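Changelog excerpt: complex records now keep ligands as SMILES alongside chain sequences, and the structure block spans every component. Example after the change:
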Amino acid sequence: MHPTDSALTHLECSACAATYDPERLWNLCPACGKPLLARYDLARAAKTLTKRSLLLREGRMWRFHEVLPVREWERAIILGEGNTPTFWVERLGEAVGCRQTFIKDESLNPTGSFKARGLGVAVSRAYELGAKELAIPSAGNAAGAMSAYAAAVGLPAHVFMPADVPATFRVECEALGARVTLVEGLITDCGKKVREGVEKHGWFDVSTLKEPYRLEGKKTMGYELAERFDWTLPDVIIYPTGGGTGLIGMWKAFEEMEIMGLIGSERPRMVVVQSEGCAPMVRAFEQGASEATPWKDAATIADGLRVPAAVGDFLILKVLYESGGTAVAVKDEDMLHYARFMAAHTGIFPSPEGAACLAAQVQLLKSGWIQPDETVVLFNTGSGLKYAHLWT
Ligand SMILES: *Cc1c(COP(=O)(O)O)cnc(C)c1O
């Protein structure tokens, strides 16, 4: 076996701060039911995870192995995730009146979305800790990503999808060897089926924030951004938010990097984008609340944003308040419009979630919340090709 030099020390509850043994599989905090976070010996990690050592490293997302949870390289399931480019999109920036506009193009990940980062780490760690079968409720990219990483090592994978899910997402999981069950009902009904399987058959649930390691995969976007901007951070990050793993993860990455001396104390203003048809975080932010109430009759073409009740709602809101950020709801029709607009001005055909970031940027430039000379990073979280049905 070849050690990764992971500096993982323990798991800590994000709400009650109880700590847990990281060498066991955990879902939510047994004491209070909130998400667990991975904690590291950052002084130790900082000895080898340096700006200079990173220059010489290959291995994409796993270049940051000291601050990832997997202990042995033999357990890291690698399909080419991470290390995505952050393009300066000059023509787009000029068209919207914000010259320093960048797109981090996560559609280049395996399975066509950034879910590959989260599930890459979660499935690897579950495999390392001896999980026998994995399960997920998902209406979109998460299921495909779990199926891919499970397939790579032959772990049985169970996917529960709402019956009305677009064929692309279902076919992808089936082709990757997952057992797909279509459920008449909503994603919450799919969640129930997963819980039944967990109790009856001992499956391991890899839902967003219900295990600690998807967040760790997603946080690598924060490390890559800092590296891209020569260990500084942009003024504004616009992020299409469903469960919020990426937003919470990047914020955690910034803190870790500051402790390791890689960046200073300056932070971007973080922007949450949701659809007008499902905007629980926007509503909660506007009310100044510390938690969100579930959104009734959630409906949007952006599958990644159809999350009526996020387990990590309080963590998302904390990031918004601490960063001086904001939250914006956009119309589905604007996502379709701005997807074409982004594609035609950059060569990147985004998912509707990625297009939502551009719609939000335009709104925030108009309102003056973003100044034309600020550096803004949009996240194209997935490939438009998986959503071609929306335009036909
Ligand atoms: C899942 C998903 C999102 C939302 O990501 P979170 O980090 O869970 O908020 C956004 N875009 C796409 C394409 C997704 O698949």
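The radius of gyration is 19 Å. The longest strand covers residues 269-275.
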